[in-house]
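Teaching note: in complex prediction, the entire set of molecules is handled at once rather than each chain in isolation. The prompt given to students was simply: 'Predict the structure of this complex.' The entities are:
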Amino acid sequence: MIEIRHVRKEFDEVEAVKNVSLHIQQGSIYGLLGSNGAGKTTLLKMMAGIYKQDAGEIFIGGEPVFENVKVKQTTIFLPDALYFFPHTTVQQMAQFYKDVYPSWNEERFGKLQELFPIDVHKKIHRMSKGMQRQVAFWLAFSAMPNVLILDEPFDGLDAVMRQKVKNILVQDVAERNMTVVISSHNLREVEDLCDHVGILHHGEMLMEKELDDLKADVHKIQVAFRNGLPSLFLRGFQVLFQEERGSVLLCIVRGQKEQVESHIRKFEPLIFDVLPLTLEEIFIYEMGGVGYAIENILV
Amino acid sequence: MRSKTFLFSRSIWLQQIRNIGWIALAHLLLLLAVVPLPMIVVYTTKATNQLPTWRNIYSISGPFQGMIAFTIPVLLAIFLFRYMQVKNSADYMHSLPFRREALFAQNMVLGLAILFIPIIVTACLTAMLCYVLPIDRSILAMADVMRWTAEMGLMELFVFTASVFVGMLTGLSVLQGAFAYILFLFPTGISVLVLLNMEYMLRGFASEYYLTAKLEQIVPFVRFLELESRSLSTTEAGCYIIVTMLFTALSLWLYRKRQSEAANQALAFPILRPVFLYGVAFCFMLVGGLYFGEMTVNSLGWIIFGYVMFSFIGFFVAKMIVEKTWRVFYKWKEYMYFVAAMLVVGVIIHFDLTGYEKRIPQLSEIEQVYFGNSTARFQQFFQEEHNVSIEQPDQFLKSKENIKNVYLFHQQLIENRNTHGALQGDFRNVAIGYVLKNGDRFIRTYSVPADEYMLFARPIVESNEYKKNYYFLLHDKGVAPIRQVTIIEEPVGEKRVTLIEPKQINEFMSSLKQDMMEEKMESLVGGVGTWGMIELLQSDGDIIHVTWKKTYAHTEQWLTQHKLLSKARLTAAEVDYALVVKNKERKPLYEILGDPNSAQAQQFLQQSATLRVTNKQQIEELLRQSASNPGDALYFIAFYRSGQREPQWEVIDEKNIPSFIREQLP
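The expected output is the structure of the full assembly:
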């Protein structure tokens, strides 16, 4: 759905995005992770057709984005700093979106009011930050876009509202095959939402992964043997990390879960547990070898 | 298809009108307040016996209309495109499904409506008032209203498109406003600055000649204020229309090129940064040079100081604007590039590597020369002259002799490069121009020390051709037969001789003309005494006034022969005595003349050495040599006339001091 090829962008001779390529499939929720200043916002704004890339190509649905009315009519970008026309009410903004986005769904707008307890005749500028963000989501969901680009979208939302918004997102992706791109500096915030994750660091794409693959591939295991560690035990698979805690060995290995299990069982371990691995840990161990201080990137 | 309507989105209209509708309202109210309201006020107040002297709509309140025309469109441009100068709104607007062309077109159309609708409403109301109120058609007619509508609309449109254009170049609304006004002044300002500075650097450069090209006419505000007396010519209107279209096209082109992230940047296009930096430095440099040049009367050292200091200030001020920080001084290297470039230009100009100062056409190519003390008439070479001066120091000369003499003088001036620099003492301005046989023209101006001028200009000034051009009375054509001659003594004016007999007039005229033809340079360039004035009544009713100089021997002789001299001027016989005062301190005469009874004047007279002259012959000599121009001469003379208490004060030039004064009052 979204195809980015060798995109580059610089501001004042500082390269904000360097030769980034990525591919986002329709109907997926893509998490763009990175620390502050990694180039996430710049990349998203290029995807939304706000900034023009200095080099490379950006396509949504096979068409270039920049100055393309057709693509932009089905793409909505929610910036981290929201903007509404001065002195407008929710109702007026809704009218504006209705005129601007052909796919606007008035029925949905009415339905969503149950979820967002906001007076439609209230001026948006008088609202709190969190409420403004709710309005932004409300409008974006009602416009029924094919592509929704969200820059740090959950800032200022309380936990309940966050969950509501995430639910609608997932529902839209499931029902309408909507494509979502979410940027965040916090992996835990989007962990439960994304199916694909990309890490941007200093304007470069460090890695891109499908989360299910990741989780299926990497395992954290705890084993202990009666007569100490068998010498050939660790030969069979790739070990990302190992640590001895007394007689217990904690290690993170890569491989198919069944294969790993059957391999270990051959040695008749005294203790054998497969522990849950957080996404954060996977990244840290995956990246550790590359030499990046990934902990700092992911908070 | 919906896509057909994309160019104009109803919602964007609505939003923009909500944002900037107040400007339309303000525009309308202001226009109503300065045009129809004064009309109603004037014509409905009871005291209508004093009707206004309006010639057109601008007469009602021209300056206020100017203020509206030069503020509302600028404000409008700023607010219409405000969205692209603020980061959040720029991002938002450009994330919407509109092409930039569409946003631009929509804003421009809205802008035009906000400009034109109030003007048209005001015009309609004014036209209505013209009929309703008892206004004479000769004061305000429909045609005036039409003209006003067209010109006001065009001017506002011009200001609006110019402001939109600069808005595309900058990302700050404040700078958009500032740049708009700078843009209006820029063409004139830079021309004046460059021309005046060229004069410091290039000896002979006639900035005065190029400056008379009415540069102020291209400053739009100035032109607007003159609309009252002069409507826009077709050419002018055409220029404004073309420039307006150009601004619009350029704005659209720039908007499409402009990045959204330019919001909040001083300059929207990085390529403009060096242009802006060095441009500002250059302009400041010229201002600095001009300031110190005018203050120190062309002292080269100070001018260079001004260049360096002001370009330094200009460069770093521009840098601060671009980088939006005070801390810019560590970037001195970029300034040094400027200094180096200016040094090269300075060396090329100052050491005249282009040969400008030495350039002089071949003598054989010259068809006629121009010689005078200003370039004013050289300008009007091809134009018909409307005013004929009684004395014309600036003129075209065609005789071989004069061409050669002017040429020689010019060569002398080129060789004397040393006189360039600080001007002190007595200098005269000389303008030398050539009209070549191939039609080319060539003009230079110089400041020449008086001595040198007298030496080299003498053969020219004393030539018959020059004199004939100089005195209207000596022109071959233009002077109608003289019907009456009146000779009036000055400065008292109680003596008067009138000649009406044709024979006498003819004789008198021929001696006067002879005096003029024989006149020496000293007498021509001024500083000699005068007896009075000669008034010549022509057959066509016009009067020519001629100065009766003391050097006019033939005239005096004729008057003596006809026993009219004592009736025409003051003679020694009427002077009881003369008091010669030595002005050791060289005070100007007007200090004493201003109030002869003041304590200061009395003190001056008491302290100064004086000589009382009673010998009639000596008095006559003093009368002949004295002049009445108030200067700081070494000797003042007071002539005490019989029967008059107040003396007549004159001065005497050092060159003409009679020997008896030299002896008795050294």
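Point out the following to students. Chain A has eleven helices and 14 strands. Chain A has two domains: 2-202, 213-298.
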